Structures are given as C-alpha cells and as structure tokens.
Amino acid sequence: MKLYLPYSLLILMILFNSCSQDPELTEPVNPAKKQIVQKDSQNSQKTNSDSSPATATEVPNSTQNPTDLATPTDKAVASPENIPTPPAQSAPVPLENNPSDVKPLPKVKRILSEKCQPIENYSYDDPRFLEKSKVILTRISGACVNASGTEGYLPDSGWMVMGFPCSGGEGRIDWKGTNYNAPKMVSFLLDTNCPMAPLDHKKLSLLVNEEMHFTPERPMSAFNPFMVQYWEFQGLDDADASLTVDIRSNKGLTTIWNQFISAKPLKILLYGRENAWVPGNHLYEVDADIQWVSKNRFTLRVNRAKALKPEDIALVKARCEALRPERDCSKVF
C-alpha cells in the first residue's frame, strides 16, 4: 500500500485540475442565463439569414415590379422616369425637305438710277449657259432699280463668265502599267490652269454681247475657271469626289479605254463650282465629252451646263454617298 499511494494521489490531482479548467463541469448552470444565451443565438441566426444572398427558391414572383423590391436608393435609379431616353435615330432628311441645308443667296443691293436697264433671260440666282461661247454668265455688276420699281443693271457695268478647263487646250493623261492598251489606271487632269475656250477674250466679249444683247460699253470683268469637285462617267461605275478624273473599273480599262484611244469620246458629268469668291456659291452640272488627242493628251468638249436646284443637288449627293468605299461627300454638297 505504501508503494501505490503516491500514484493514486497523482491521478486524483490530474482529474481535479482538468475539471477545474472546464466551466461547464465546475460552474453550475443558471436556467435564466441559459435562456438568454439561446435567445441571442436565435437572433444572430436570423440576422445572418437576412443578409445572406437569396437562393433559387427565394426569387420573387416574376409578376412583381422589380422597382418595388428595391431599396429607396435603388428605386430612384431604376425608376423609368429617371432613365434618360436616347435620341431617336431618324433617317437623313432629303435636301429638298430640309431648308436648313439650303443656304439662301444674299440679297442683291440695288442702287436707284434712271439709267437702269432691264436684262432679259438672266437672273441673279439662275446663271445662264451661253450656247455660242460655251460659257456660263455668272454675274452682272451694277444692280439697280429706277423710280418706277423696274430692276436692272447700269449700262456700263461689267459682267463675269465661267469657262471650263481643257476646253481651249490640251490636258494631260496619266496612265499606269506597262501596256498602253491595257493600263492599270488612267487619270485625266482637269486642272484650273488648263486653257479655257474661247482663248481670244475679244471674241468671247463679242459672243456674249451678241447673245445677251449687251452694248459695247458693258465690259467683261472676269473669266473664271470651273473647278471639278465630283464626277461620274456615263455608262461606267467610275465616280469620285476628287479633282482628278480616274478610270479604275475593269470595263473602263478594257472596252471603254480601247474605244477612247480609237477616237471615241468618253461621256462624263462634272460637278463643281466657280473658282472665285463670288456670291451664291452655285453648284454646277457640266455634261461634257473627253476627247483623245494623243497618247498623253486630251481635250474637253462642253455640251451643256447649268446651275443645280436644291432638289437636283439632293439626287447627286445621294449618288455620291452610295459609293463604296465611302467618299467625303460633305466637302462638295
């Protein structure tokens, strides 16, 4: 007994220490305190379930309005009246139906004079193509009105006309490739420095005076060139908004080109403006033929020309905008 007594005491001490470290074994349980702890545990579980994301079974009924389920802040954002409506994408308005695209001509300032003479077949807002001289009468200076209200022009005031480059001399042809009969591309340079017909300005004055019934006292004040801005070959798909007239299509570089170098003219429509600071800023259509002269030279023969009306401009603009790849038609129209 004396030998085993210390070991039994050691075992009792170990059991006593382990029981003293566990409060549930050493401290008596208070029923009231236990009830409070259980209540706090239930509240904590409820709070955690409210803050946790909804499961598939908690998705609201689809018939409910999503804004009714949102918080007050979310309702302010999701409310239809607070969502900006994007602007409507309306179709382009044709030029003739969109007055804002048509710039009105500045009003003519007329001086009161008893020498005022009316001129037939001419209007300030409708320049006239002269058949004999193949030029366009663009402006007459000295606008006036007499005491009775008749409008006209002073008898000694000058007039301005517009001619067409390469109509009075040869223009240059640039072609690319190794075979002249089958080039890769052909360009006609209608530069404003190219000679304009008629070359004799005295003859031009006589022709204009005769056709317009001007007196010799009314002089020519300017002979301005036409500047090409857009063109279309008739019977070909070749068209562009550029100063240089090019043939790129397969039909143009084969059949039409071979006909052209065999002295058959190329029919073309030219669109552009007078290369001068003049009021009105008219856009003109020129029906012309490009005539072959030599391997690298051509001339332009003008058949007719006119200032376009807004409805005509709209049609030409639509054709330009339909080209692919797209061209910068806004610089012309």
Whole-number radius of gyration?
46 Å
Q: What is the straight-line distance between the termini?
A: 125 Å
Mean of the pLDDT scores? 77
Number of β-strand runs: 14
Number of helices: 8
Keywords:
333 residues; single chain; 11-stranded mixed beta sheet; 8 helices; 14 strands; 3-stranded mixed beta sheet; alpha+beta
Account of the 3D structure:
It is a single chain. The protein has helices at 5-21, 23-26, 31-51, 66-69, 72-78, 201-212, 250-260, 310-321, and strands at 111-112, 128-130, 135-140, 143-145, 151-153, 159-163, 171-176, 185-189, 220-233, 239-240, 244-247, 266-274, 284-294, 297-307. A hairpin with an 8-residue loop joins strand 7 and strand 8 (185-189). The chain is an alpha+beta fold. The protein is 26% helix and 25% strand. The strands form two sheets. Strands 2, 3, 6, 7, 8, 9, 10, 11, 12, 13 and 14 form an eleven-stranded mixed beta sheet that branches. It has a three-stranded mixed beta sheet with strand order 1-4-5, with no helix packed on it. It has a domain at 106-331. The N and C termini lie far apart (125 Å). It is flat. The longest helix has 21 residues, at 31-51. The chain has eight helices and 14 strands.
Q: How is the secondary structure organized here?
A:
Elements: H1 5-21, H2 23-26, H3 31-51, H4 66-69, H5 72-78, E1 111-112, E2 128-130, E3 135-140, E4 143-145, E5 151-153, E6 159-163, E7 171-176, E8 185-189, H6 201-212, E9 220-233, E10 239-240, E11 244-247, H7 250-260, E12 266-274, E13 284-294, E14 297-307, H8 310-321
Parallel strand pairs: 1-4, 6-9
Antiparallel strand pairs: 2-3, 3-6, 4-5, 7-8, 7-14, 8-11, 9-10, 9-12, 12-13, 13-14
